[in-house]
Sequence to fold (174 residues):
Amino acid sequence: MLKKNADNLDHSFRYEISAKVGAKSLLKCIQCGVCSSGCTVTEYVDLQPHRVVASCLLGLKEEVLSSNAIWTCSLCHRCTERCPKNVDYSFILALLRNLAVKEGKIPKEYSSTVVTIYNNGYVVPYTGGLKDNIDRRRGKMGLPELVPPDLKEIQFIIEETGLGALAKEKEDDK
Ligand code: SF4
Ligand code: SF4
Fold:
């Protein structure tokens, strides 16, 4: 467990976040807890929304970027809509995900999804028995067969966003 003393604090963290376009609202939080009281996933997160904000302000960067809270959020935007100080928490959370990924802190469920899309062009591989099942169900509903994606284009996009390195890293792990 992270020892909470002055040595663990990154006092520049609040400015690292608030300097980003649209994230300045972080500094206006008054810790009223309204965001947490209405959060749709509050019982599943290790840090409730108001505690994530407080941790960002206090400089607990490691704790925030390692929390499951930033990945469990469903981005329903309820917290943002209800905040009396107009803190755009759901947007800030998306920024925190980006920062976590840059530090290599990404849950394997997410990284393996990127790899699957990189290799297949679909979130679920559309091959073999799975393809037969999908085609049969679509046929029953009167839907046409799926048009195969342009895998090269998808891989180009993933490479350009920087996620390509992640996909390659995971391939090398195999
Ligand atoms: S609702 Fe807004 S002001 Fe209140 S704790 Fe959450 S982020 Fe801070
Ligand atoms: S956007 Fe995320 S943190 Fe905000 S209320 Fe919805 S699930 Fe909770």
Remarks:
- Residues 29-35, 49-50, 53, 83-85, 87, 89 surround iron/sulfur cluster (ligand 1) (CB under 6 Å).
- The two ends are 30 Å apart (CA to CA).
- The first helix runs from residue 13 to 18.
